[in-house]
Amino acid sequence: MKQLKVFKSLVKDSLDVITSGSITYHIWMASLTIIMLTGMYCYSIQLEEGLSATGMTDKVSWGLYISNFTFLVGVAAAAVMLVMPTYVLKDIDFKQAVLIGEGLAVAALIMCLAFVVADMGGPSVLWHMIPGIGVFNFPNSMLTWDVLVLNGYLFLNITIPFYILFRHYQGKESKKSVYLPGAILSVFWAVGIHLVTAFLYQGLQAKPFWNNALLGPRFLASAFAAGPALIILVLAIIRAFTEFKIKDKTIKKIAMVVTVAAQINLIMLVSELFKEFYAPTHHSESAYYLFFGLDGKTALLPWIWTAISMNVVATILLTFHKFRNNLKTLYFCCFLLFVAIWIEKGFGLIVPGFIPGPYGKIAEYTPTGIEIGVTLGIWAMGALVFTMLAKTAIYIELGKIKFKKKKKF
């Protein structure tokens, strides 16, 4: 009963925190709400008209939704780059940022699941994914493995921070014997969620563009570049607008992780390009379409070359100690990397896998306004969830809200 009272008090205090703030904060939350409502309206049109309201066809059946899903799985997995140094290696410099990273993972996973629902056409078909009720087909289907690892990772990233914050809210230290096993498990689970997602594409024999042994490792490299890059940008915003001051040393350590991952990602990209173009076969047509166009079809050319240019510039700048330690340059490079990998793991990976089609026909894909509206709505939902989680966590860590014990007379 006592713990239930503490939980009720925490919920009440959290609601007070997330519903109060500066004018800037209220404008931010109102803007996200408006974008979410717009997304819901676009989604209602999709529910009424079906997936024909999107730019997807029987030729290109995965588009903007699955592109964002793939990218966000990597963002969620990147939280492990803070969890492992903090909980396992006991690096105190990462301790300030780990709860923020886990909050970002929760928001990313919620967006992942929302994009899957949007891509399936509607929530009415979700029962197919419920074990024992739907057609789960475990363990043969890689999709069922993806469902399990994503929901399992979401559970870990909710329960571990919640336990720590719940203890801190009561003015108590969290017990390592409780959270450490889950933290260690989440390290391996984070790698698993991205590898399983990569295997989901890699196992489709009819899509030679994805039949690449480097797909799984490159997924991880790009994730550990884009995810921590986003974490750095979020920490910069938190430092600017809150009293929760993250040390420069913490940001610079995360920057080193971003740099190494970006370098590995670039090396793997060069390896893939060599494999596709040095000794091309008819299976290289998707890569040719992506990088050079086919039969005058060049819709993805501006996207992929912009992404590669941003990727190269950011990686080169981050490689030099002088630029990496300059916070303004670091933030700029993190932004470039984040956008570049979003393009690369989105349009640059998903769409070319369907082009050209089985009979050599090239049917290009362009997202509709409905798709873009739903996508922006889901991103706004993720930003809203993260804002609420981060603000509550910061207030608890700063001691601004805590459980008030009633005095006994």
TrEMBL record:
It comes from the Bacteria. The keyword Ribonucleoprotein does not apply. It holds the Pfam family NrfD. The chain crosses the membrane at residues 27-46, 66-85, 97-118, 147-166, 178-201, 221-242, 254-274, 300-318, 330-356, 376-398. Keywords: Cell membrane, Membrane, Transmembrane, Transmembrane helix. It is a multi-pass membrane protein. The keyword Transmembrane helix applies. Gene3D superfamilies: Formate dehydrogenase/DMSO reductase domain. One of its GO terms (cellular component) is plasma membrane. It is found in: Cell membrane. Its main location: membrane. Belongs to the NrfD family. NCBIfam families: DsrP. This is Polysulfide reductase NrfD.
